[in-house]
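Write out the 3D structure for:
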Amino acid sequence: MGNVQQFPAVASRRPRRLMDRVRSEIRVRHYSIRTEEAYTSWIRRYIEYHRRHPRELDGEDLNRFLTHLAVEGRVAVSTQRQALSAILFLYRHVLKTEFDWMDKVVRARQPRRLPAVLSRDEVTAILSHLQGTAELVVLLLYGTGMRILECLRLRVQDLDFDLGHITIRNPKGGRDRVTMLPDSTRDRIGEHLINVQALHKNDLEQGFGSVYLPHAIERKYPHADRDWKWQYVFPAGSRGIDPRSGIERRHHLHESVIRKAIYSAARSAGIAKKVSCHTFRHSFATHLLMAGHDIRTIQELLGHKDVKTTMIYTHIIGNSGGRGVTSPADTLKATP
């Protein structure tokens, strides 16, 4: 009876200390706040599912949890793989433990699916149902091949109007890259930045105006967080509390704002395809390939580490791009 009474107290204290260590290890590696939230959530769910300390669990316990997610939770393969990555992070970097079973855990296979791609007319139709900041963001997604968060995390200094390019810093994969600044967006971005600068000036006058800075820049340059060049190109409409520092500041626009705008615009345009922010990145790559641009150039613009990832777009273009394959249905003679 005494053991039963002691278990809840131990369980309530131990995960709390453990989660502090998890956050510490995540932050020392400069992982994003999204990754921190996801990893801590999965680790907490893993512990709550078994109600035992992770050191007492083995590969069978982990596989049982992953099976629970797939069968009862009906999560997607990508979600299941994220949960596994979080738990392996816990063992390797927080508990500093390597078990033999860790390399034998069965990873769910990600099915290979061709992405949805819009035609140029469909892109134009969707843009015609957007306005303001949402229209400018979507135009940049299609015109540069950026991911949605890469676009929304742009700082003023990342735009080079003289050289006509955009620098994408700390993207997925960690390698900075450069993409084009579309001529069609120059005037629009210039007008947009005038409004953003006025908003920033107003924040400064109210005693705010600081922005999140990556890594140790804030310590090296104490006033850089209020510098205009470090401000987000697409700031949020209101200030909020930074969950890590507790400082009230203006973050970048949340991606859900753009997602909702795209969903509404696609419906209004009568587009039957599943359209997301990432669809414009796929369309960018496919249209460049159809225009005859080199696959290696497209790979660099997209920031793919392996050209095999970029090669998926060659399977989308079908008869275009010089393949010259004609459907047998198109050779049938019309019935009189």
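The longest strand covers residues 165-168.
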